[in-house]
UniProtKB/TrEMBL annotation:
Residues 64-198 form the NB-ARC domain. It comes from the Eukaryota. This is NB-ARC domain-containing protein. It comes from Stichopus japonicus. InterPro entries: Disease_R_plants (IPR044974), NB-ARC (IPR002182), P-loop_NTPase (IPR027417). GO terms for biological process: defense response to other organism. One of its GO terms (molecular function) is ADP binding.
Amino acid sequence: MFAALQEAGMIDMDNTSYLKKLLADVGADASIEDVERYEKDYQEYVSKIKLLRGQHDPYFMGREKEINVALKFLGKDDDKIKCLYIHGMTGLGKTKLAQQISAYYGTEYGLDATGMRMVRLHKVTSTLEMGVIILRELGMRISLNEYDEDILFETLCTRKQRTLLLMDNADDLLCPTSQAADNFKNQLSALLDCKNKWLKLIVTCRFPIDFVHLTQKDSFLPISVQPLDELDSIKLLRKASRPPDHVSPLERIAKRYLDDQYAKELAVVCGNCPKMLRAVASRLRNGIKPSRLLETLSHPDKAHVALRTPPEEDEGYFSMGDDSNYEKDVLPKMGEMINDLSQELREVLIRLSVFPSTFSDRDVAHVLDRSEADVADYYLDDLKNRWGMLEGEPDYFEQEQGPKWYSMHALVRTSCLRECYGDQNSKNIFHDALQRFSTACRTSWTRSPDSPAPTLRRGF
Ligand SMILES: Nc1ncnc2c1ncn2[C@@H]1O[C@H](COP(=O)(O)OP(=O)(O)O)[C@@H](O)[C@H]1O
Ligand SMILES: [Mg+2]
């Protein structure tokens, strides 16, 4: 009835007073409660749509390439369900990118609220829970007891309306220690074999997926989110640090201090990570000098103070995004990620944080005091492929048997160094690695001219 009244333009979310008056006149109090429920449901529904569309974010920068690739992929209506899998470290902008892609896709196909759904998977640890959330999001009232995987498949595979399902933050389902990870990947793989051109999925998660039954499918596309380009980072810093319009012209001038050099250096210490850049920009906007911010950020134990979102800015003009109410700040979250690692991998990561830039498996063998073969297979590739904590570098020298190169993102390094301030054990591990590192550097610099080329050369 409400849908019919709404369609006829007789009621709307904020226009139910006449209907309520009529119901009150005839003494239908129970129905008034129904109207109030309608208002509440509709308000939630509208806010979800705003959320899915990422609202209008004047500070959104870059990502043109990713958006184009994604839209081309999602727009191809062959007969299979499609899944775009967006992965990358916390704070790099996975959710934002997914929202932006959804917004473009939704506009292109004229999707309304029922065609664009956001499924929040934060803290969801079983595929059962996930299935129920998805079904409820699609309008089915179902309890955990009633749930059955077949219902989910039936619903998704037979959906006849064009639908974009944004499954955000599948970290807890897909972390390497999750019991549900295999189940999730198998279910997704089976789903992508179903014929239904109307359904498109976007999954965001910090972990990459290396499951061949997914990665070999044309209907599965992984996108790795990297830090912003340097120019986009600087643009973001400048734009987001500009004082709001109501600030007086004199104050504005007083606050225009972000010269090129500071902007560049701040972008570097933020690792071009949009979440950190926005936090830094908000500090600048509040009048904190770039030199002071740089100084604070270069102390890993103090960095979190500079990067915490000021409480008064959680809402409104400088919102950190709609997900700020359930996403924690980036450095503590990164710390949690590091603490999730096995003890051994954690120690390896702390040792690796002695490298300020790229390093090879040979360099790592020095600081870990292990064989080169062990190092690449058991530690570095694990940290790279399963945990996304390291990045692989392209082989600049195209040697067949040459060393493999890696680098650590500035945020991971900062988080590791922060650990070393608070925890004596981590501090010892770091200092031991530092000593091995400097010994290795000294040895490589004092080699005779005919000895093999040192590998400890780049970035040191
Ligand atoms: N390309 C971008 N341009 C500007 N701000 C961005 C961009 N990507 C992300 N952000 C902002 O950075 C913060 C973190 O982004 P989010 O998508 O939540 O990261 P993730 O999901 O990877 O943890 C949010 O406040 C978001 O608005
Ligand atoms: Mg996210």
